[in-house]
Amino acid sequence: MTSSPKLEPTLHQAIARRLKRSLSAQGQIALPAVKGALDPYGQRLNRLFSLLGKPLSPSELVKLCQHLAQLLQNPPPASDIILSYEPAPPPRQGLVYRLDRIKTETPSQTLRCQGQLVFPCIPCLSRDYLQQLASLFALLTHPLNQAQAEQLHSRLEQELASGFLLSPQSRLSVSYASNPPSQGGLSCQISVVTRSLADQSQTILRQTPNYLQMFGPLTKILDVAQAQSPQDTPILLAGVGTAQSALPLAQQGFPIDALDLAPAFAQQLRQLAQEQTLPITVVSQDILDPLLSLKSQQYRLGILTDVASRLADVEALELLLKKVAQALQPGGTLLINLFLAPEALPSTPLLEETARVFNSTLFRRSQLQSLLDCLPLTLIDEVSVLAYEREHRPQDGLKLNPWYVHWAQGQQVFAMDTPPMELHWLTLRREETAEDPNSPNPLFSTVDAEF
Protein backbone atom coordinates (compact mmCIF):
# COMPACT_ATOMS: atom_id res chain seq x y z
CA MET A 1 0.00 0.00 0.00
CA THR A 2 1.56 3.29 -1.10
CA SER A 3 1.53 6.33 1.17
CA SER A 4 0.00 9.64 0.15
CA PRO A 5 2.41 12.09 -1.47
CA LYS A 6 3.86 14.72 0.83
CA LEU A 7 5.43 18.09 0.29
CA GLU A 8 9.10 18.58 1.06
CA PRO A 9 9.56 20.09 4.53
CA THR A 10 10.86 23.38 3.10
CA LEU A 11 7.76 23.75 0.92
CA HIS A 12 5.41 22.79 3.75
CA GLN A 13 7.09 25.37 5.98
CA ALA A 14 6.81 28.02 3.25
CA ILE A 15 3.04 27.47 3.04
CA ALA A 16 2.79 27.52 6.85
CA ARG A 17 4.61 30.87 6.95
CA ARG A 18 2.25 32.27 4.35
CA LEU A 19 -0.82 31.10 6.24
CA LYS A 20 0.52 32.48 9.50
CA ARG A 21 0.79 35.90 7.87
CA SER A 22 -2.83 35.70 6.74
CA LEU A 23 -4.08 35.00 10.27
CA SER A 24 -5.84 38.00 11.77
CA ALA A 25 -6.16 38.54 15.52
CA GLN A 26 -7.54 41.18 17.83
CA GLY A 27 -8.54 41.21 21.46
CA GLN A 28 -8.00 42.34 25.01
CA ILE A 29 -6.68 40.71 28.18
CA ALA A 30 -7.09 41.96 31.76
CA LEU A 31 -4.62 40.79 34.41
CA PRO A 32 -4.65 41.69 38.11
CA ALA A 33 -1.97 44.33 38.74
CA VAL A 34 0.19 42.44 41.22
CA LYS A 35 3.63 43.65 42.23
CA GLY A 36 6.28 41.04 41.43
CA ALA A 37 4.31 39.45 38.56
CA LEU A 38 6.65 40.74 35.84
CA ASP A 39 8.25 37.41 34.92
CA PRO A 40 5.09 35.24 34.74
CA TYR A 41 3.12 37.97 32.98
CA GLY A 42 5.92 38.67 30.52
CA GLN A 43 6.24 34.98 29.67
CA ARG A 44 2.48 34.58 29.30
CA LEU A 45 2.14 37.57 26.96
CA ASN A 46 5.13 36.43 24.91
CA ARG A 47 3.50 33.01 24.43
CA LEU A 48 0.22 34.74 23.58
CA PHE A 49 1.72 36.62 20.63
CA SER A 50 3.36 33.41 19.40
CA LEU A 51 0.05 31.53 19.54
CA LEU A 52 -1.59 34.37 17.62
CA GLY A 53 0.93 33.78 14.84
CA LYS A 54 2.72 37.08 15.46
CA PRO A 55 5.76 36.28 17.67
CA LEU A 56 7.63 39.18 19.23
CA SER A 57 11.21 39.87 18.20
CA PRO A 58 13.81 40.01 21.02
CA SER A 59 13.78 43.81 20.97
CA GLU A 60 9.96 43.90 20.99
CA LEU A 61 9.89 41.52 23.96
CA VAL A 62 12.36 43.71 25.88
CA LYS A 63 10.22 46.77 25.18
CA LEU A 64 7.05 45.00 26.34
CA CYS A 65 8.70 43.81 29.58
CA GLN A 66 10.09 47.28 30.31
CA HIS A 67 6.63 48.79 29.94
CA LEU A 68 5.09 46.01 32.02
CA ALA A 69 7.67 46.60 34.77
CA GLN A 70 6.68 50.27 34.97
CA LEU A 71 3.00 49.41 35.28
CA LEU A 72 3.62 46.79 37.98
CA GLN A 73 5.80 49.06 40.11
CA ASN A 74 3.74 49.94 43.19
CA PRO A 75 0.34 49.40 41.51
CA PRO A 76 -2.64 50.94 43.35
CA PRO A 77 -5.14 48.56 44.94
CA ALA A 78 -7.97 47.23 42.78
CA SER A 79 -6.20 47.83 39.47
CA ASP A 80 -5.74 45.76 36.33
CA ILE A 81 -3.17 45.54 33.57
CA ILE A 82 -4.95 45.75 30.20
CA LEU A 83 -3.33 44.47 27.00
CA SER A 84 -5.18 45.42 23.80
CA TYR A 85 -4.00 44.23 20.38
CA GLU A 86 -5.12 44.44 16.77
CA PRO A 87 -3.67 43.94 13.26
CA ALA A 88 -1.04 46.46 12.24
CA PRO A 89 -2.20 48.88 9.52
CA PRO A 90 -0.97 48.10 5.96
CA PRO A 91 1.66 47.73 4.69
CA ARG A 92 2.97 46.65 8.09
CA GLN A 93 2.53 43.07 9.24
CA GLY A 94 2.02 41.61 12.68
CA LEU A 95 0.13 43.16 15.57
CA VAL A 96 0.11 46.51 17.32
CA TYR A 97 -0.61 46.48 21.04
CA ARG A 98 -1.22 48.83 23.94
CA LEU A 99 -0.54 48.26 27.63
CA ASP A 100 -2.46 50.23 30.26
CA ARG A 101 -3.14 50.11 33.98
CA ILE A 102 -6.64 51.00 35.11
CA LYS A 103 -8.46 51.08 38.42
CA THR A 104 -11.53 48.89 38.63
CA GLU A 105 -14.52 48.74 40.94
CA THR A 106 -14.70 44.97 40.54
CA PRO A 107 -11.18 43.65 41.21
CA SER A 108 -10.57 40.08 40.16
CA GLN A 109 -7.80 37.62 40.81
CA THR A 110 -8.32 35.84 37.50
CA LEU A 111 -7.42 36.57 33.90
CA ARG A 112 -10.28 37.96 31.82
CA CYS A 113 -10.23 38.11 28.05
CA GLN A 114 -12.09 38.69 24.84
CA GLY A 115 -10.82 38.31 21.31
CA GLN A 116 -11.22 37.12 17.77
CA LEU A 117 -9.12 35.00 15.44
CA VAL A 118 -9.80 34.92 11.69
CA PHE A 119 -8.39 31.96 9.74
CA PRO A 120 -8.32 31.14 6.02
CA CYS A 121 -10.98 28.52 5.24
CA ILE A 122 -8.69 25.55 4.58
CA PRO A 123 -10.56 22.33 5.45
CA CYS A 124 -7.51 20.11 5.77
CA LEU A 125 -6.18 22.30 8.61
CA SER A 126 -9.06 21.67 11.02
CA ARG A 127 -6.79 19.72 13.39
CA ASP A 128 -4.10 22.42 13.25
CA TYR A 129 -6.65 25.12 14.03
CA LEU A 130 -7.98 23.03 16.92
CA GLN A 131 -4.49 22.66 18.36
CA GLN A 132 -3.85 26.40 18.06
CA LEU A 133 -7.15 27.29 19.72
CA ALA A 134 -6.71 24.70 22.47
CA SER A 135 -3.25 26.08 23.26
CA LEU A 136 -4.61 29.64 23.26
CA PHE A 137 -7.51 28.80 25.56
CA ALA A 138 -5.16 26.96 27.93
CA LEU A 139 -2.90 30.03 28.03
CA LEU A 140 -5.97 32.10 28.87
CA THR A 141 -6.54 29.74 31.86
CA HIS A 142 -9.41 27.85 30.19
CA PRO A 143 -8.03 24.48 29.01
CA LEU A 144 -10.37 22.26 26.99
CA ASN A 145 -11.35 18.83 28.24
CA GLN A 146 -11.60 15.97 25.76
CA ALA A 147 -15.33 16.38 25.16
CA GLN A 148 -14.94 20.11 24.54
CA ALA A 149 -12.03 19.53 22.17
CA GLU A 150 -14.00 16.97 20.17
CA GLN A 151 -17.01 19.27 19.99
CA LEU A 152 -14.84 22.19 18.86
CA HIS A 153 -13.13 20.08 16.21
CA SER A 154 -16.45 18.87 14.83
CA ARG A 155 -17.64 22.46 14.53
CA LEU A 156 -14.39 23.56 12.89
CA GLU A 157 -14.63 20.76 10.32
CA GLN A 158 -18.21 21.68 9.50
CA GLU A 159 -17.64 25.43 9.16
CA LEU A 160 -14.37 25.12 7.22
CA ALA A 161 -15.95 22.75 4.71
CA SER A 162 -19.03 24.92 4.21
CA GLY A 163 -16.97 28.12 4.00
CA PHE A 164 -14.57 26.70 1.42
CA LEU A 165 -17.49 25.38 -0.61
CA LEU A 166 -19.23 28.76 -0.48
CA SER A 167 -16.05 30.56 -1.53
CA PRO A 168 -12.38 29.61 -1.07
CA GLN A 169 -11.80 33.24 -0.08
CA SER A 170 -14.13 32.89 2.92
CA ARG A 171 -12.68 33.30 6.37
CA LEU A 172 -13.39 31.40 9.59
CA SER A 173 -14.06 33.73 12.52
CA VAL A 174 -13.56 32.43 16.07
CA SER A 175 -14.70 34.87 18.77
CA TYR A 176 -14.22 34.15 22.47
CA ALA A 177 -14.80 35.93 25.78
CA SER A 178 -14.65 35.23 29.50
CA ASN A 179 -18.01 34.50 31.04
CA PRO A 180 -19.20 36.52 34.07
CA PRO A 181 -17.37 35.54 37.29
CA SER A 182 -20.53 33.97 38.68
CA GLN A 183 -20.69 31.64 35.68
CA GLY A 184 -17.01 31.06 34.99
CA GLY A 185 -15.46 29.53 31.90
CA LEU A 186 -15.10 30.84 28.38
CA SER A 187 -17.67 31.30 25.61
CA CYS A 188 -16.72 30.68 21.98
CA GLN A 189 -18.58 31.47 18.76
CA ILE A 190 -17.59 30.25 15.28
CA SER A 191 -18.87 31.64 12.00
CA VAL A 192 -17.92 31.94 8.34
CA VAL A 193 -17.30 35.41 6.95
CA THR A 194 -17.56 35.98 3.22
CA ARG A 195 -16.67 39.05 1.21
CA SER A 196 -17.79 39.08 -2.39
CA LEU A 197 -15.72 40.34 -5.29
CA ALA A 198 -18.35 43.04 -5.70
CA ASP A 199 -17.70 44.28 -2.16
CA GLN A 200 -13.94 44.15 -2.64
CA SER A 201 -14.03 46.12 -5.89
CA GLN A 202 -16.28 48.78 -4.35
CA THR A 203 -13.89 49.17 -1.42
CA ILE A 204 -10.88 49.50 -3.74
CA LEU A 205 -12.51 52.21 -5.85
CA ARG A 206 -13.76 54.04 -2.78
CA GLN A 207 -10.22 54.16 -1.38
CA THR A 208 -8.47 54.69 -4.75
CA PRO A 209 -10.88 56.13 -7.35
CA ASN A 210 -8.33 55.97 -10.20
CA TYR A 211 -7.24 52.41 -9.36
CA LEU A 212 -8.06 51.01 -12.83
CA GLN A 213 -5.84 53.63 -14.47
CA MET A 214 -2.88 53.34 -12.11
CA PHE A 215 -1.22 50.31 -13.69
CA GLY A 216 -0.35 49.79 -17.31
CA PRO A 217 -1.43 46.79 -19.41
CA LEU A 218 0.60 43.61 -19.52
CA THR A 219 3.05 43.78 -22.40
CA LYS A 220 2.22 40.34 -23.77
CA ILE A 221 -1.41 41.36 -24.32
CA LEU A 222 -0.41 44.40 -26.36
CA ASP A 223 2.15 42.47 -28.39
CA VAL A 224 -0.27 39.68 -29.31
CA ALA A 225 -2.99 42.17 -30.25
CA GLN A 226 -0.68 44.42 -32.27
CA ALA A 227 0.16 41.50 -34.54
CA GLN A 228 -3.47 41.74 -35.73
CA SER A 229 -5.38 44.34 -37.73
CA PRO A 230 -7.66 46.30 -35.36
CA GLN A 231 -10.46 46.58 -37.92
CA ASP A 232 -10.53 42.80 -38.46
CA THR A 233 -9.96 41.69 -34.86
CA PRO A 234 -12.92 41.80 -32.48
CA ILE A 235 -11.61 40.92 -29.03
CA LEU A 236 -13.22 39.04 -26.15
CA LEU A 237 -11.61 40.19 -22.90
CA ALA A 238 -12.51 38.53 -19.60
CA GLY A 239 -11.12 38.83 -16.11
CA VAL A 240 -11.00 41.18 -13.13
CA GLY A 241 -10.16 44.83 -13.75
CA THR A 242 -10.38 44.44 -17.53
CA ALA A 243 -9.96 48.21 -17.99
CA GLN A 244 -6.21 47.73 -17.65
CA SER A 245 -6.16 46.06 -21.08
CA ALA A 246 -9.44 47.19 -22.63
CA LEU A 247 -8.67 50.91 -22.64
CA PRO A 248 -5.30 50.83 -24.47
CA LEU A 249 -6.54 48.22 -26.96
CA ALA A 250 -9.71 50.17 -27.75
CA GLN A 251 -7.65 53.34 -28.13
CA GLN A 252 -5.81 51.53 -30.93
CA GLY A 253 -9.10 50.77 -32.66
CA PHE A 254 -9.80 47.22 -31.50
CA PRO A 255 -13.51 46.54 -30.80
CA ILE A 256 -13.68 45.07 -27.30
CA ASP A 257 -16.31 42.99 -25.55
CA ALA A 258 -15.29 42.99 -21.88
CA LEU A 259 -16.65 40.59 -19.28
CA ASP A 260 -15.55 41.80 -15.85
CA LEU A 261 -16.12 39.69 -12.75
CA ALA A 262 -16.27 42.80 -10.53
CA PRO A 263 -19.44 44.92 -11.02
CA ALA A 264 -17.82 48.13 -9.75
CA PHE A 265 -14.87 47.71 -12.12
CA ALA A 266 -17.25 47.00 -15.00
CA GLN A 267 -19.27 50.13 -14.26
CA GLN A 268 -16.18 52.35 -14.16
CA LEU A 269 -14.88 50.85 -17.42
CA ARG A 270 -18.27 51.55 -19.00
CA GLN A 271 -18.07 55.18 -17.91
CA LEU A 272 -14.49 55.60 -19.15
CA ALA A 273 -15.39 54.06 -22.51
CA GLN A 274 -18.33 56.45 -22.91
CA GLU A 275 -16.24 59.49 -21.95
CA GLN A 276 -13.55 58.59 -24.49
CA THR A 277 -16.00 57.27 -27.14
CA LEU A 278 -14.20 53.94 -27.30
CA PRO A 279 -15.51 50.74 -28.98
CA ILE A 280 -15.98 48.83 -25.73
CA THR A 281 -19.05 46.83 -24.75
CA VAL A 282 -18.99 45.95 -21.05
CA VAL A 283 -20.89 43.10 -19.43
CA SER A 284 -20.64 42.48 -15.69
CA GLN A 285 -20.84 38.69 -15.77
CA ASP A 286 -18.68 35.73 -14.92
CA ILE A 287 -17.38 33.93 -17.99
CA LEU A 288 -17.22 30.81 -15.80
CA ASP A 289 -21.00 30.85 -15.37
CA PRO A 290 -22.43 27.91 -17.35
CA LEU A 291 -25.57 29.98 -17.99
CA LEU A 292 -23.54 32.52 -19.96
CA SER A 293 -23.23 31.34 -23.55
CA LEU A 294 -20.97 33.05 -26.10
CA LYS A 295 -22.06 32.82 -29.71
CA SER A 296 -19.67 30.87 -31.91
CA GLN A 297 -17.03 32.37 -34.20
CA GLN A 298 -17.55 35.90 -32.90
CA TYR A 299 -13.96 36.84 -32.04
CA ARG A 300 -10.57 36.86 -33.65
CA LEU A 301 -8.78 37.20 -30.33
CA GLY A 302 -9.72 36.03 -26.84
CA ILE A 303 -7.85 37.28 -23.77
CA LEU A 304 -8.45 35.69 -20.37
CA THR A 305 -6.52 37.37 -17.56
CA ASP A 306 -6.55 35.97 -14.02
CA VAL A 307 -9.55 33.76 -14.78
CA ALA A 308 -8.02 30.27 -14.76
CA SER A 309 -6.40 31.06 -11.40
CA ARG A 310 -9.92 31.18 -9.88
CA LEU A 311 -11.03 27.80 -11.23
CA ALA A 312 -11.81 24.85 -9.00
CA ASP A 313 -9.98 22.18 -10.97
CA VAL A 314 -8.91 20.92 -14.38
CA GLU A 315 -12.51 19.97 -15.26
CA ALA A 316 -13.53 23.61 -14.85
CA LEU A 317 -10.60 24.64 -17.07
CA GLU A 318 -11.86 22.24 -19.74
CA LEU A 319 -15.32 23.84 -19.67
CA LEU A 320 -13.78 27.30 -19.91
CA LEU A 321 -11.56 26.41 -22.87
CA LYS A 322 -14.46 24.73 -24.67
CA LYS A 323 -16.63 27.82 -24.24
CA VAL A 324 -13.98 30.24 -25.48
CA ALA A 325 -12.88 27.97 -28.33
CA GLN A 326 -16.44 27.97 -29.62
CA ALA A 327 -16.50 31.78 -29.51
CA LEU A 328 -13.28 32.12 -31.53
CA GLN A 329 -13.11 32.22 -35.30
CA PRO A 330 -11.08 29.41 -36.91
CA GLY A 331 -7.49 30.62 -36.98
CA GLY A 332 -8.20 32.96 -34.07
CA THR A 333 -5.96 33.32 -31.03
CA LEU A 334 -6.57 32.70 -27.34
CA LEU A 335 -4.23 34.24 -24.77
CA ILE A 336 -4.74 32.90 -21.25
CA ASN A 337 -2.63 33.04 -18.11
CA LEU A 338 -2.56 30.39 -15.41
CA PHE A 339 -0.27 28.98 -12.75
CA LEU A 340 1.96 26.09 -13.78
CA ALA A 341 3.75 23.78 -11.36
CA PRO A 342 6.30 21.05 -12.10
CA GLU A 343 5.03 17.50 -12.47
CA ALA A 344 7.15 16.46 -9.49
CA LEU A 345 5.32 18.81 -7.11
CA PRO A 346 2.92 16.59 -5.12
CA SER A 347 -0.76 17.47 -5.27
CA THR A 348 -1.66 17.55 -1.57
CA PRO A 349 -4.82 18.89 0.09
CA LEU A 350 -2.80 21.59 1.84
CA LEU A 351 -1.23 22.83 -1.40
CA GLU A 352 -4.37 22.68 -3.53
CA GLU A 353 -6.64 24.27 -0.90
CA THR A 354 -4.15 27.03 -0.10
CA ALA A 355 -3.77 27.79 -3.81
CA ARG A 356 -7.55 28.09 -4.15
CA VAL A 357 -7.74 30.41 -1.13
CA PHE A 358 -5.28 32.83 -2.75
CA ASN A 359 -6.71 32.64 -6.30
CA SER A 360 -3.71 30.65 -7.48
CA THR A 361 -5.16 27.36 -8.74
CA LEU A 362 -2.34 25.12 -9.98
CA PHE A 363 -2.11 23.12 -13.18
CA ARG A 364 0.50 20.74 -14.58
CA ARG A 365 1.59 20.64 -18.21
CA SER A 366 0.45 17.04 -18.54
CA GLN A 367 -3.08 18.13 -17.58
CA LEU A 368 -3.02 20.87 -20.20
CA GLN A 369 -1.81 18.51 -22.88
CA SER A 370 -4.58 16.04 -22.10
CA LEU A 371 -7.14 18.83 -22.44
CA LEU A 372 -5.73 20.22 -25.67
CA ASP A 373 -5.70 16.76 -27.23
CA CYS A 374 -9.51 16.86 -27.05
CA LEU A 375 -10.07 20.52 -28.01
CA PRO A 376 -9.72 22.49 -31.26
CA LEU A 377 -6.87 24.48 -29.69
CA THR A 378 -3.16 24.20 -30.45
CA LEU A 379 -0.48 25.56 -28.13
CA ILE A 380 1.86 27.82 -30.08
CA ASP A 381 3.67 29.59 -27.24
CA GLU A 382 4.22 29.41 -23.48
CA VAL A 383 6.15 31.97 -21.44
CA SER A 384 6.41 33.19 -17.87
CA VAL A 385 4.33 36.33 -17.36
CA LEU A 386 7.00 38.09 -15.32
CA ALA A 387 9.88 36.92 -17.51
CA TYR A 388 8.13 38.38 -20.55
CA GLU A 389 7.56 41.66 -18.72
CA ARG A 390 11.20 41.89 -17.65
CA GLU A 391 12.36 41.41 -21.23
CA HIS A 392 9.77 43.40 -23.19
CA ARG A 393 8.11 45.97 -20.92
CA PRO A 394 8.92 49.56 -22.01
CA GLN A 395 11.18 51.29 -19.51
CA ASP A 396 9.02 54.41 -19.58
CA GLY A 397 5.78 52.44 -19.12
CA LEU A 398 3.69 52.26 -15.98
CA LYS A 399 5.08 49.87 -13.39
CA LEU A 400 3.38 46.62 -12.53
CA ASN A 401 1.38 46.52 -9.33
CA PRO A 402 3.83 45.20 -6.66
CA TRP A 403 1.08 42.95 -5.30
CA TYR A 404 0.62 41.47 -8.78
CA VAL A 405 4.33 40.67 -9.04
CA HIS A 406 4.23 38.97 -5.65
CA TRP A 407 1.17 36.94 -6.65
CA ALA A 408 2.38 36.04 -10.16
CA GLN A 409 5.56 34.45 -8.87
CA GLY A 410 3.62 32.23 -6.46
CA GLN A 411 4.48 33.99 -3.23
CA GLN A 412 0.84 34.24 -2.21
CA VAL A 413 1.04 30.47 -1.67
CA PHE A 414 4.70 29.90 -0.78
CA ALA A 415 6.48 32.41 1.47
CA MET A 416 9.89 31.86 -0.13
CA ASP A 417 12.15 33.52 -2.69
CA THR A 418 11.62 30.99 -5.49
CA PRO A 419 8.29 29.16 -5.24
CA PRO A 420 7.75 25.98 -7.30
CA MET A 421 4.96 27.68 -9.28
CA GLU A 422 4.60 30.72 -11.50
CA LEU A 423 2.04 32.47 -13.66
CA HIS A 424 2.47 31.67 -17.37
CA TRP A 425 0.99 32.90 -20.63
CA LEU A 426 -0.37 30.30 -23.02
CA THR A 427 -0.97 31.38 -26.61
CA LEU A 428 -3.38 29.01 -28.37
CA ARG A 429 -4.62 28.88 -31.95
CA ARG A 430 -8.21 27.92 -32.73
CA GLU A 431 -8.24 25.16 -35.34
CA GLU A 432 -11.01 24.52 -37.85
CA THR A 433 -13.43 21.69 -37.13
CA ALA A 434 -16.14 19.97 -39.13
CA GLU A 435 -18.78 21.32 -36.72
CA ASP A 436 -17.91 24.99 -37.26
CA PRO A 437 -21.03 26.90 -38.42
CA ASN A 438 -20.73 29.27 -41.33
CA SER A 439 -23.41 31.81 -40.49
CA PRO A 440 -22.67 34.92 -38.39
CA ASN A 441 -23.99 35.11 -34.85
CA PRO A 442 -25.01 37.87 -32.44
CA LEU A 443 -22.63 39.21 -29.83
CA PHE A 444 -23.83 37.71 -26.55
CA SER A 445 -26.42 35.06 -25.76
CA THR A 446 -27.45 34.43 -22.18
CA VAL A 447 -29.64 31.54 -21.20
CA ASP A 448 -31.80 32.21 -18.16
CA ALA A 449 -32.12 29.49 -15.57
CA GLU A 450 -35.47 27.72 -15.59
CA PHE A 451 -37.06 26.65 -12.34
Tags for this entry?
16 strands; 451 residues; single chain; Rossmann fold; alpha/beta
Explain the layout of strands and helices:
Blueprint (H helix, E strand, L loop, with lengths): L8 H14 L1 E9 L5 H14 L6 H14 L7 E9 L7 E9 L8 E9 L5 H14 L6 H21 L4 E8 L7 E8 L3 H11 L11 H8 L8 E5 L3 H9 L4 E5 L2 H14 L3 E4 L8 E3 L4 E7 L8 H14 E13 L8 H9 L4 E2 L1 H8 L4 E8 H8 L9 H7 L13 E9 L13 E3 L5
Helix pairs in contact: 2-3, 2-4, 4-5
Characterise this structure.
This protein folds into three domains: 19-109; 115-194; 198-430, Rossmann fold (3-Layer(aba) Sandwich). It has 14 helices and 16 strands. The protein has helices spanning 9-22, 38-51, 58-71, 126-139, 146-166, 197-207, 219-226, 243-251, 263-276, 314-327, 349-357, 365-372, 385-392, 402-408, and strands at residues 24-32, 79-87, 95-103, 112-120, 171-178, 186-193, 235-239, 256-260, 280-283, 292-294, 299-305, 328-340, 362-363, 377-384, 422-430, 444-446. Strands 7, 8, 9, 11, 12, 13, 14 and 15 form an eight-stranded mixed sheet that branches. Residues 439-451 have low confidence and may be disordered.
